[in-house]
Amino acid sequence: MHRSRLRWWSFFLAALLVFLPAGEVWVQAAQKKKSSHRRVRYTVPSYADPTVNDLLEGEEIPVREVAVRALGNLNGSVMVVEADSGRILTLVNQKLALSSGFKPCSTIKLAVSLAALEEGLITGDTLLRVSRRQSINLTEALAYSNNPFFEILGKRLGFEKVSSYARLLGFGELAGYLVEDEHPGSFPTRPPAYGGVGRLSSFGEGVKVTPLQLAALMAAFANGGTLHYLQYPRTEKERAGFKPRVKRHLPIQRWLPELRAGMEAAVLYGTARVSAEAEEHLLGKTGTCGEDRAKLGWFASYGELPRGQRVAVIVLLRGGRPLSGSKAAEVAGQVYRGLSQTYLLANRPEDVPPPPPATGN
Fold it and tell me: Hey, which of 6, 68, 287, 347 would disulfide with 105, CB 3.0 to 4.6 Å?
């Protein structure tokens, strides 16, 4: 009897020695997983008056009124640019737009897409495996902003090529010509410590971009590849003497169909689908991420108005949990709708009755 008890206790102690460390590891892993899913506390307000301290000199007032109405009391900025000339028509919340820059979030994926196409890593039809059971092409990856897809491309391209193409598209340099208080943003000289080139290629880790840089890029996508210096003529004399200034011609013509297909898919059924409510043909890329205790929501886009004017519209939102790239796309959709009505009314013959007032947002 005594020996059987000793044998039983020996088995019990052995089991404790075997399973207790594993249990501790399991508890630690569970706690780590729980902490990783803990909500980030955003301290920047989502709502504010975005027009405070804005200067009206140089603003196209009808365009500005549309942008201000669309933005409402959201803490953010709206920028509208003529795609064929680079002229800034309005810049709402000039302090935010002309600051030192923000993480581009998923808008960086446009630069990575171009690099991968130009370097021959993919075509528009190439399928990349992004999970055990899913393979997608570039159109779907842009439409749904698939992070693994662009992490794979970034790692295959390498940091130097990603950097080269991003700088070609205007990242890390001034986008404007003598635009007062503009900053050039920044692009790292080496892969970021957190996540390396994969994280940079999917979230824009380590990069700072401004609304002006994205506006110039979207204008180039709209006009076929001409990257203009953005100009913001403030006085009547500057307006009268305005002439477009070309920075460089981007070698993107052969890849525009693939890039546009992804941006159009984002609007029709992807992350920017709320903006598809606008009747105008528009294309764009959303971006959502966090930075400095604020949630960022980007929508970089361009579209054609009913009378043929091509414009680039950039929306940046900065605040808390309600804000996102999809919310920025919603604001942009209202801008395009309002601009269409404004331009139609401005060019409408007097004997044609105006359209009925809109009933929805």
Answer: 287
